[in-house]
């Protein structure tokens, strides 16, 4: 299907037979991250124009009701369709070093020369601390709305320590 594949082509442009053939010929890897941590990262990167995290979250929740949700905080299930696409690997944020090492070994590639240095444990600790701080800024209603908005991500992936799971 190379003749039909361009940078802009989406899977939805192909018929079911073509989609199954293409997906069957690739190793499919999905990188996932706790939705609350994705919100924090988006806020810290300045992608929202809000002065506080609480007002940023309210902007996100308002965009949900207006159906203008940004890809930066859209639920992963709606973006990656894990119920439709059989991913070969799902890599959790915070476990990249061990997961990517495994993927490289499975592909027969040298792990040491290709794998960057990750500081997974420090990153996880930092995001845990940040999550506690940011979560405390939110109202009970905002927490409930976020949990509802990300309910399918929380059900599909093992984000057991997510603040939105509580």
Automatic annotation (TrEMBL):
<dbReference type="GO" id="GO:0008146">
    <property type="term" value="F:sulfotransferase activity"/>
</dbReference>
<keyword id="KW-0808">Transferase</keyword>
<dbReference type="InterPro" id="IPR018011">
    <property type="entry name" value="Carb_sulfotrans_8-10"/>
</dbReference>
<dbReference type="GO" id="GO:0000139">
    <property type="term" value="C:Golgi membrane"/>
</dbReference>
<dbReference type="Pfam" id="PF03567">
    <property type="entry name" value="Sulfotransfer_2"/>
</dbReference>
<dbReference type="GO" id="GO:0050655">
    <property type="term" value="P:dermatan sulfate proteoglycan metabolic process"/>
</dbReference>
<protein>
    <recommendedName>
        <fullName>Carbohydrate sulfotransferase</fullName>
        <ecNumber>2.8.2.-</ecNumber>
    </recommendedName>
</protein>
<keyword id="KW-0812">Transmembrane</keyword>
<keyword id="KW-0735">Signal-anchor</keyword>
<dbReference type="GO" id="GO:0016051">
    <property type="term" value="P:carbohydrate biosynthetic process"/>
</dbReference>
<dbReference type="InterPro" id="IPR005331">
    <property type="entry name" value="Sulfotransferase"/>
</dbReference>
<comment type="similarity">
    <text>Belongs to the sulfotransferase 2 family.</text>
</comment>
<keyword id="KW-0119">Carbohydrate metabolism</keyword>
<keyword id="KW-0472">Membrane</keyword>
<keyword id="KW-1133">Transmembrane helix</keyword>
<keyword id="KW-0333">Golgi apparatus</keyword>
<keyword id="KW-0325">Glycoprotein</keyword>
